[in-house]
Every structure is written in structure tokens, then in C-alpha cells.
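Have a think about this chain, C-alpha cells included, and walk me through the fold.
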Amino acid sequence: MEQTKRLVMTFKTDGDKKVSLVVDDPRDDISESEIKAAMDLVIAKNIFAPNGDDIVQAVDAKVVVTDTTPYDLVL
């Protein structure tokens, strides 16, 4: 079984749409304050413009862990 972990940070744009930025394999000891600071930096630097809209607000963040079980279908 293979396990993957991703930090999903969701933002709102000035076009009132939600967009997410995903970071693969975040540190196990990452803190809420570090995530909040990173999200604030994304907003302050204004370097992403999804569909031409500016990111204006942090909505939420979560670490998503996925277990994948591959099956060999050649019998």
C-alpha cells in the first residue's frame, strides 16, 4: 500500500471563486501558524492569478492523506 500526503490550501479570489494550492509531502511537524503565514504570503505577494483573478482571502487548509492499493490485473 502506498500512502501520499498533501497540504491543500484553499483561497477565495476577487471573482468570488475558490482555488486551491497543493503542496506534496508537507513536513510532519508543520504548524497552523506556519501554514497561515504561507497563505498570507501568497496573498501579499499576489503572484498567482487563476483565470485572471487575484487571490484575496485564505479560506481553509488541510492535510490530506491517501492510501492507494495497486492491484496486478495480469493473472
The chain has one helix and three strands.
